[in-house]
Amino acid sequence: MTAGTERNGVAVLPSTTVGVPRENAEGERRVALVPKAVEKLRSRGVEVVLEPGAGTGALIPDEAYTAAGARLGDPWVCDVVVTVGPPGPPEIGKLSRGATLIGFLGPATSPETMTALREAGVQAFAMESIPRISRAQAMDALSSQANVAGYKAVLAAAEHSTRFFPMLTTAAGTVKPATALVLGVGVAGLQALATAKRLGARTTGYDVRPEVADQVRSLGAQWLDLGIEAVGEGGYARELTDEERAMQQQRLEEAITGFDVVVTTANVPGRTAPTLVTAAAVEGMRPGSVVVDMAGESGGNCAASEAGRTVVRHDVTIVSPLNLPATMPEHASELYARNVSALLELMVDEHGTLAPDFSDEVLAASCVTRAEA
């Protein structure tokens, strides 16, 4: 950690050091801060230390970081370490006692990580725990990354589809546009609808939260009304009752068979993803149709999907990609870096010293472990 110095005989408080390590998870190409974010933090008196090669996956060379004011070194000894994914036990062991960690940490799904951080005396802030309130929108990493995922999911559907998305009028005749259904219209679902519409498909959205129907229609899509509502807290849907789930599956099975493309995005935080596309629904779809299951990491919305794989069942292609934002590392990293730097700016004072105020609801909600006093 940075030691205090004197300037013109006046004591100067040490600035906060923020470390940016290289992500080690398989397939992870994002980086927690980009050079523009480094410049912004430097203007606040914060020193940024980059692990050499941290930006390589996002195609950002070390030279771009040093030009922005970062220095190369060991990020794990810094006051604050910012990551994309959760660090493993070896990395947690490198953190200084009393250090602060910021990243997607899985507080609801990875209790072993929380235990390790508490035992290491680390103060941790989970990006997925940022409350979804107006003043925290700039820090909402779940939304920024869901936008990327929703966009890329539709591109995956188009790649695997045996049909054109747009209507084409040719000398050989007219080709009808593909029909696309998006199940779950949060941030990812709305982006998926918008992207499918841009590609020329006839789009329809469904969600158990009726209040999003107007958002779906505002994108030029139709609203699929199954007569089931499940409004939850924090912008999420609540878990359905057994009776509601059975009714939903029956009505969805009937509806799904009429679409060329189905994109599913439904997740309940901390729980197994609900099954929306049953095996019977897949069997009833036209040959050549595509299902893109964005919930594969939490169990999947499609009964026939296999997490991380593309399979074909009854001549229907089921794609279950993992970590879609990492497949667009440049823009995904840029958006995530804005989220992280906005949170950091809330945590440092005018001198660039780390001073989180836990009476602030954003910091109180996102802090998942506290360092020992």
From TrEMBL:
UniProt xrefs under SMART domains: AlaDh_PNT_C (SM01002), AlaDh_PNT_N (SM01003)
Organism: Pseudonocardia parietis
Keywords: NAD, NADP, Nucleotide-binding, Oxidoreductase, Translocase
The protein's enzyme class: translocase
Role according to the record: The transhydrogenation between NADH and NADP is coupled to respiration and ATP hydrolysis and functions as a proton pump across the membrane.
Family matches, as CDD domains: Rubrum_tdh
EC number: 7.1.1.1
SUPFAM superfamilies: Formate/glycerate dehydrogenase catalytic domain-like (SSF52283), NAD(P)-binding Rossmann-fold domains (SSF51735)
Superkingdom of the organism of origin: Bacteria
Protein name, as recorded: proton-translocating NAD(P)(+) transhydrogenase
